[in-house]
Amino acid sequence: MMHMTFYWSNNLTLFINSWTTNSWFSYFLTLIIIFLFSIFSQFMEDQRLRLRLLTSSTTAAVAIDKAPLLYSNFFLSGGSGARFVGSVLFGINSGINYLLMLAVMSFNGGVFVAIVVGLAVGYWLFRCSDDEQIMLLDDGCACC
Hints:
By secondary structure, the protein is mainly α. It is 66% helix and 3% strand.
């Protein structure tokens, strides 16, 4: 049965029909997996931002700040290998975040709490640093 409001139960079907929890042990194991997956999402985002910071040039950033509509990111980014790796990291991170969104859409309260706490812990571990340059690259889209 598909729930349309939040419910608190250990009976959960997540993503596919074979991932069903019927006991408290399997439910808590699922919550731990989702919690770790949320932390991994923040780790991947941190790695993507660090790669972007390493491949960006300071002169390009200054030029973009002065005239943002005249410059294209296509010509100002690093080599094609770094752009490819950045694109792969972005795709993996987007896929992970969309899977987390689908998990929340199961409307199970425990899954929701595990994801939110996992994202907060992951942010604290990997992205909550004093490095101002990484924070400048950080975008406001928390969902993906």
